[in-house]
Amino acid sequence: MTPRDSPGPARLAFLHFRIGALNEMQYRANFFIQMVNSMIALGTALVAIALVYGHTDDLGGWTQPELLAVMGVHILVGGLVRTFVQPNMNRLMEDVAQGTLDYALTRPADSQLLVSVREISIWQLTDVIVGTVVVVWSVVTVSGRVGIYATLGFVVAITCGAIIIYSIWLIATTSAFKVVRIDNLVQLLNGIYEAGRWPVTVYPGWLRGTLTFVIPLAFAVTVPAEVISNRIGVIEIGWALLVTVVFVTVARLVWLWGIKNYTGASA
Amino acid sequence: MTYLLRYYRAGSRIGVLRDLQYRGSTFMYLVGFLVEPTVYLTVWTAVANAQGGTVGTYSTGELAAYYIVWTLVRVMNLAYTPYGWEWRIRGGRLNEFLSQPIHPFHRDFAFFIGSKVIWLILWVPVALLLSLTFKPTLSPNLIEIGGFAVAIWGGFAVRFVLLYLMGLVSFWTTRASALFEIIMAGELLLSGRLVPIELMPEWVQQLASWLPFKWSFQFPIEVLIGRLSPGDIVAGIGIQLLWASGLGVVLAVVWRFAIKRYAAVGG
Hints:
The complex is a heterodimer. Chain A is built from 11 helices and no strands. By secondary structure, chain A is mostly helical. Chain B has one domain (2-260). Chain B has helices at 2-21, 23-50, 60-76, 83-90, 94-98, 104-134, 142-167, 177-190, 202-209, 218-224, 230-261, and strands spanning 54-55, 58-59. In chain B, strand 1 and strand 2 (58-59) form a beta hairpin. In chain B, helix 1 (2-21) packs across helix 2 (23-50), helix 7 packs antiparallel against helix 10 (218-224) and helix 7 (142-167) packs parallel to helix 11 (230-261). Chain B starts with a helix and ends in a 6-residue tail after the last helix. The mean pLDDT of chain B is 88. The interface between A and B is large, with 40 and 37 residues.
């Protein structure tokens, strides 16, 4: 490719995703295995909800069908992260440990963009499907229909949520430049993400504060669920947008700091 | 026999040293999985509070005790993940173990025994923090403390052998993830890991008593929080022994077949 028609960021990302997707398409049986895994996870989640509501009708101000929306968003955003974010971050950690990150850094495109689009696990999208079905089911049960504004707000909120979680992953993974062995980091982030399965209003103050401002699962999971079930409106979406901007900026600064101080592990 | 003892001593020392070297990483892992019981505890505390302070036969203080002891039991029953077998077999890493005259089971078992040491040290501050936050009702007598000291090892043995046995499925197929997910979901629901089994419907309690899962989670917890008589404690430890040795025999038999199936991949 000549420099003249070198692709813009969006096209570059799209091309990478396409190659990744085509690569995974070779293994079609994995789709069914992933689907089975998604169903098992969903079943377990539904049993947990049923158990809780077998003992009470109201959990922190949420009824059972309303809480399904939170669970659906949790599955949906988790699916997005496992499809687009986690595989890239795993590869980044591996590259830092092996010293092969130089191959990405020496390319003419933006390094943060490159390390964020190299991998994709499309079969994890089964969770996005399952999550969407659960959300729609919940909304239809609660209010009988899905409003157009609520849907638009939901799409905005869920995009913000996914971007926030991407930023947290990138910030955490960038620490791989300093501390090479961070395989347990994945465990940590996934562990914390599990807390988003329940609305943050259920938690005691200190934990709610952490999940709102430090690791803002409140904005990533609870807010989209609240938007789609018409519990909140435009102002909260504005807040979610603001938090997203802050996290993206911090992630960018941390990344720039990281590559500035990176010396390569292989050399 | 003395040789095996010496082997275990050396093997567990390697486990200790590995975790000590990467203590930051180990701590991250620990914090990551502590989110799980904290979430269960807060959700069930919210349910109990909504019902005037109890759920089933558990008060909020007893729930706190249950889940704080849960964290210790969880640290103790960490075992080699069945997913690890695919990695070992595909990468040809098993060859190294097989060329040694001692069964790889001993190598792994010793390693996991050793790695408890650092985990337990790291667990102490976390448990103190949880106790200050959630104020557990916990006053074990000497019999219960003694019984617990044995039962956590029994629970570890049962869980280790069970997961090891499951991992051997990887000798026949490398797509066993759906099977593992089913077993893990079964463990989550039927071991007392998600919630004390008494809070489940009657038929689930019946089912759970015929399966090994609860002997590696709920039984040791119940011993320490004082819900069992001395007779129950002794009988329970006996059942743990039966499960561990029974599954151990199955493991030994399956291993023979598995190893015949094995053709090395890689080098």
